[in-house]
Structures are given as structure tokens and as C-alpha cells.
Amino acid sequence: MLTVSYDGTDYCGWQVQPTGVTIESVLNRELSRLLKEDVRVQGCSRTDSGVHALGNLCVFDTQTRIPSEKICYALNQGLPEDIVIQESKEVARDFHPRKCDSIKTYEYTIYNHRFPNPIERRYSYFCYTPLDVEKMRQAAAYLVGEHDFKSFCSAGSQAETTVRRITGLTIDQDGPRIRIRVQGTGFLYNMVRIIAGTLLRVGTGFWPPEQVEEILRACDRAVAGPTAPPEGLLLVKIDLKR
């Protein structure tokens, strides 16, 4: 199993696509080259185009005699600078991170200022309208717990059910940076970015905080906020429950 961090700016997401370079395709190429066998990784979280990660997980099978803890060092030598393996370790043959109970932690960063900061442009969403963080926190409280998040799921999702459980949702501000931190057992397609877009609507005063409760009940994507841009989203970590 590999713990993978990456800057997703120049990639078409995690999963292999017919066209465009993805994180998965680069890992497959470099692992196959290193281990001299056909390797296909299986990821735990399929992040979208432009989304970043500090701790995504993936697994693969290999016959190599290279010690598992050394693979990360060897693999990093061939990877581009915007993809880094933080850890490699052996796991049971039937182990797969998507089949384990887990808590995923995401952060969405907003740069709230009169003018954009060029240093922040790849890792945050710029919003020049002043945001009321306290109202955003009030709105976020409605989302904690187990709910039907159909209103927060983009079309094209193949999920069997839209019920999900958010175990924590906090909003912190450090100067112009506002970070929405969401933890849960699983997320729907674009769910975190739609949550961010909805909370932005509340922060600007477009909606009152209690509107979020109505959005949840509606189970209708059309009534929620926009899907916030991908550059502000970071997959922080995936905690596996053994």
C-alpha cells in the first residue's frame, strides 16, 4: 500500500482516462518501470481533476523482492516533483482500502480578500466578497450526522445510496484564509465541493444558515449551491479502521 501526496493542478484527476495524464496512470507507468512487471494500482479515493492530496491511498500486487518499505524511496526517484510517495508498506493479499471502514478528511480553502494572491491561486478559491464565517458555521452544523445528501451530489454519480455520515465539519479562519474541514465515512461525487459552494452562499448573505436544512430535506441538486472550483480542495488523510 502506498500513501500518495500530489499537487493535482496539472492532472486530469486520479483515475486513468482515455485522454489526459492522471495520477493513477503516472503511478502505473513508474511502478511498472521500476518493478519490471505490469502494475495497476487501485486507489482509495478518486479525486477529480485539479484536486490535491496529502494522503491518498492505493494498493497493488507485485512479485518484487524489493523490501516494501524501500519501494517509496525507489519510486520517488522516477516520479515528477508534484507526486510524492510518503510511505510504502506490505499489506495482506486480500486487503483493499476501499473495502475497509475509514474516515476521510478533506479541507476546502477559500482566500477571502479584496485582491487575489498569486501564491495562493493553485491551492485556494479566491472570493473578494466579505464572508460571515460565524453564519457559515451555523449552516455547517445542519450537515453533521447521517443524512441523505442527494442535494449535494452531482449528476453522473453511480452510488447505490446517497445517504452518508459526516462525523465532523469545522470552519477556521486565519487572516484571509478560511478552511472548511470535513470528515466522514464516505462522500458522494463532488459532495465536498458542493458543500463548500453552499456555505459560500451563506457566507455572502445570499442565504440564511437555516436554508441548508431545507436544502438537505429537498434531496434536489438544483436547490444547493454551486460546485466550488477544484483548486481549493485537498484530501488530507484517510484513517483506516482495522
Feature tags:
242 residues, alpha+beta, Alpha-Beta Plaits, 2 domains, ten-stranded mixed beta sheet, 5 helices, 10 strands, globular
Distance from N terminus to C terminus (CA atoms, Å) equals: 14 Å
Architecture per CATH nomenclature, i.e. the level-2 architecture of the largest domain:
2-Layer Sandwich
Give the count of helical stretches: 5
Q: Roughly what percent helix?
A: 10-25%
Biggest pleated sheet? 10 strands, mixed
Shape, per Cα inertia axes: globular
How many distinct folded domains?
2
Number of strands: 10
Let me know the CATH homologous superfamily of the largest domain.
Pseudouridine synthase I, catalytic domain, C-terminal subdomain
The Rg value, from CA coordinates, equals 19 Å
Which structural class fits the helix and strand makeup?
Answer: alpha+beta
> Can you tell me the residue ranges where pLDDT is under 50 for at least 5 consecutive residues?
none
